[in-house]
Structures are given as structure tokens and as C-alpha cells.
Amino acid sequence: MSAIENVIIIGSGPAGYTAALYAARADLNPLVFEGSQSGGQLMITTDVENYPGFPDGIMGPELMDQFRKQADRFGARLITTDVTEVDFGQRPFIVRAGADEYRAHTVIISTGATAKWLGIEGEERLTGRGVSACATCDGFFFRDKELIVVGGGDSAMEEAIFLTKFASKVTIVHRRDEFRASAIMAKRALEHPKIEVIWNAQVSEIHGTDEVTGVTLTDTTNGQTSEMAVDGVFVAIGHKPNTELFEGVIDLDDKGYIVLTDRSTRTNIEGVFAAGDVADSIYRQAITAAGSGCAAAIDAGNLLAELE
Ligand code: NAP
Prior knowledge:
The protein contains 6 helices and 19 strands. The chain is α/β, with parallel strands linked by helices.
């Protein structure tokens, strides 16, 4: 049977690698399941200009490579494998990756969240070339451009309002005739001089070769299509925390995010911690995820010291 690990870290975005770095430097010899696609959401971002310490910006994948190298340098053991099952009902905790079984005194969950996408023609191909799901990350690149924001919730309102700082015009495209967003956010967007709304419409195709040049809109009431020239499309139809593995295992909120206790990284199960976007529906930034990864490693280390 395998040795009992001090700490297993599941996930390899900014939260997971930072937890790994801190746990390694605390001599906890962490085992990190990076997943088959390591690096998290920054792997599909181009320039990251808001991560402190990089005044000239850095490409998302390169930043994650640096995170990884730093964790590796201090001895974090990194496995590029997906965790397929966890059992937190017994101690030590069990983490399975296919047929392999691992045991651990503590677990840090940092599996992140995934932006929901429309799944339409052109979307994936033009991601990072005018298609984005993060105005805070990419808005800056659209100075004096015309943009579309897809969605009718608070995220869409927030993204649209944020984008008016740069764009010459922002058009919110919503599939129904009323917003889901809170009244105050909707009012702010509706009253903004740079924001227009197209109701009852779905972006059904995104056009462009090297960058976005326009979209096809489909009227959701009668199916009629029309073309619209735009420079960028921000998809703001919500995020999905990557918590399928933990359903029925630990406490999740009604949107599926892991619930933390007392401003810590503790979950409802002693010894199981969570960090990054998997437990954060509000800030969702690389820097906040990294910060919470650090906190989770410290929380896990403190618990291990108590258990000793
Ligand atoms: P949300 O409330 O679930 O809204 C998603 C929006 O996207 C809805 O308007 C939905 O349309 C639309 N949508 C979903 N799938 C679509 C598709 N395939 N095609 C076209 N449109 C689609 O998600 P959210 O806006 O990200 O907000 C998530 C949570 O965070 C909410 O509780 C929100 O209040 C909160 N939040 C708060 C703030 C704030 O207070 N500052 C900011 C951001 C988020 P329908 O309306 O037709 O379903």
C-alpha cells in the first residue's frame, strides 16, 4: 500500500501551484495532481498584464510554466493525471486516479472553474483573437473598438460596463426580452451612453480569420438571421466550478462552488481545504487564486502540526 501523503493537491492553476510551492517549502513533500490539461484557465489566455511582478506583461501559458517550475524547484511531485474519485469519508483520505489509489492526511482542492461557452462556429478558433470570457483580462486590448457582450446576468452587465472604459461601443446581446441581472446592475448598463442592447437574439456564429470581424445574430422569436460587424465578442454566460468530483462529498453552494468556513480555506471536512476559483464566484483572478493557494498550504500545514 502507498505511503500516507501529508498533502495531496488536486488541480494546477495559480492556486494549485502556489499551494504546492508553499507546501514544498514547508517540507510537506506535496503530491500534485495536475490533471491531463495542466495550468488552468490562464493556458487559454494570451497577454496577462495584471499579474503583479510582470510590468511588461506575460503570456498566460508562460506564467503558468513559471509557477510550475517554481513548485518543482522545491520538490513538489507533479503528476499529469486526472483524479477520478475521492473518498473523504475515511482517514486517511483516499484519492484515486484510475486504478491507482493514494492516501493523504490532508487534501487541497484547486480544480478551478470553467467559463461557459456558446459552442458556436468560430468561438474556439478565435478565442484570444477577439473572443474572450474575461473583460478584466482582455478588455484593455479593445481601445476604441466595437464589442458584443453575450448574456443577461450580472456578469454580462459588469463586463459590459467595464468594457466601456476602452470600447467605443458595447452591444449586449441577450436571448430573452428581459435581463436576469439584479435591477441595479441592469439599470446601470441600460442607462450607459456607450451601451446598447439587442433583445431576443443569440450570437449564432463568429466570423474572422485572424481576428474577429463580425457575428451572425439569430432572432430567438422568429429564427431570422442578420450580420453585424464587431471587433470582439465577450461571452459572459456564467462560470461552472469544476466540482463534479466532490458532489455529495463536501458542501457545495447552490451554484456548485465549494463552501469555505470562517474566511479560511477550510471546507466542512476537517483536513480538506479549497483554494482558487473552485471556491470563489466573486473575484476569480489569478492573483487572488494564488493568494488562496498560499493560505490553503498554510492552513493544511497548521492542521498537520496540530495532528502531530
Ligand atoms: P447567470 O446569473 O447564470 O446569468 C447567465 C446569463 O447568461 C443569463 O442571462 C442567461 O440567459 C445567459 N445564458 C446562459 N446560457 C446561455 C447561452 N447558451 N446562450 C446565450 N445566453 C446564455 O450567470 P452570471 O451572470 O455569471 O452570474 C453568476 C452569479 O454571480 C449570479 O448569482 C450573479 O448575481 C453573481 N454575480 C454578481 C455580480 C455583482 O453583483 N457584481 C457580478 C457578477 C456575477 P437567461 O437569462 O435567458 O437564462
